[in-house]
Model the fold of this input.
Amino acid sequence: MKIFKGIQATPGVAIGPIFLHDPEDFWVDYQLIPDAGVPSEVERFQQALSDVAEDIQETRSHVEERLGTEHAQIFDTHLLMLQDVALKDATVELIETKRFNADYAFWQAFQKLRKDFDAIQDDFFRDRRSDLVNIGKRVLARLCGQEMVSLEHLNHEAIVVAHDLTPSEAAHLPTDFVLGVATEVGGPTSHTSILTRSLGIPAVVATETLMAHAEPGDLAIVDGGRGRVFLNPDRETLERYRAEVKQFRDRQVEWASFRDLPAETADGYRVQLHGNIELPQEIEAIQAYGAEGVGLYRTEFLYLGSDHLPSEEEQAEIYARLAGQLSPHPLVVRTLDLGGDKLSHVLSVKPEANPFLGWRAIRLSLANKPLFETQLRAILRASVEGQVRVMFPLISSMEEFLEAKDLLVKVEKDLRSEGVPVDPDFKVGVMIEVPSAALIADQLAEEADFFSIGTNDLIQYTLAVDRGNEKVAYLYDPLQPAVLRLIQQVTDVGFNYGVPVTVCGEMAGDPCLSILLMGMGVDSLSMSPRLLPGVKQAIRSLTFEFAQELARTVLELRTRDEIRRYLAQMLPGDLGGQIPEVVVLEGEE
Ligand code: PEP
Ligand code: MG
Done:
């Protein structure tokens, strides 16, 4: 057995034979053509370009239908690359001056462009390199009369292992057959991650050397939640994961039965359960898993998946559509959280030495007022279509929140003076993700309509542990007393000031932790929609009184080990065995 560490792209476990996706390099035929053959060879080349353009257009329409306009825009970049004048001219010149056949001429010109791309030290161009290679291969396939290996035609169940997937490949993955995906490159916000998440396919990216070790048909396990790929797993590992998959399937059947029941404890206490989304089409999962609205819409994905800044019109259309579909349930739109690990070339956010302490989220929005105003205008315009709320990420001081709120008030006035209707009861929230915000929660409560605790960041900033760094992952722990105390303080403030408190970080989607959060007095929980049934089941299995008592005792304990032991002992049924463990990477390659 070999274990490959990667980055979690889509949670879930897949077990199956490997399909190695290695779109072959083409054998390019070299010929010298006679003078008289030049015009027809140029013509053949141009025909190949227009055939490929037609294919891309077709793919674009398919993707637009299946995944929405934002994803389809990726193909506009492909079309632009295909129409690149330099590549076209260089090919034609090689045909005309060197008398190369079209295949060989294009291949030469293409290799040169590929090398030029390789030499550029810029994230944007590095990301576009795989797009370029894909385009080049498509043109060569046409010229050589060969079919490219297409994942679309996969007709047996398999785990797709590839160096990388193009956006087109990821968007076309046949969900009936693709059990899981593992790629050698990519990050949490790369196209593969975004698209596999939308399609609900367990996936791990950045496995580095997986292709060199894997053979077609090898058995593999993709553990998307932990970011691990097991190649030819030993019996014990296989059995453990088979049991996990079975347990998950059984649970899903059971969960479906209470989809429409409320998240209510045995003694009648109700918690609202909302869903987190990154893409508009995830609204389907929101509805399928019975979420009472969207508690966190991570709007930066509108910018990450696009090659242009989304306009006010585009954004307003998306927010309004979602609000209408969710109504009467809420749509909580979080304003842009770019920076940190989410870099967008359209904003030229450059890598920084300390990205999580740097130019990120609200800081970036406040420094780009026109961009921020565009988003706020779009959100406010959509407010009359349903229950739209806005919240600002990474607020670390009162000044920052007031500045953002002032801008919102100004934008609202502008819209009204233009005769554009805005919901008069529009709610504005603060994300509590930085300890400084938690510590001034009482002051923020005077200004905010609601709090949303972003525990993913709150844990990293409270414990000084980079949430994406595997080396310190063993320190990243929601059950550290310091983290729990901060959450309790914010919840108490919310209660005393009549400000509703939501938790929208990963903690909210964990059944055991959700009980603890409920016991602390959190009003609602927002999570990845697929996690919602498990949380609902846990809430329905016990009383609020029990959860309160549990939380009270946990907050008196001094170490995370004591807390884990106590929870394991106290939580009823199989909940006690589901307490999240800290990540320990020892012994893995
Ligand atoms: C969080 O920090 O908990 C959160 C919900 O925001 P994100 O994960 O997008 O940073
Ligand atoms: Mg956050």
User: Anything to note?
Assistant: The chain has three domains: 2-23+151-248, 35-144, 258-577. The domain at 35-144 is CATH 1.10.274.10 (Enzyme I; Chain A, domain 2). Residues 296, 298, 337, 433, 454-457, 504-505 surround phosphoenolpyruvate (ligand 1) (CB under 6 Å).
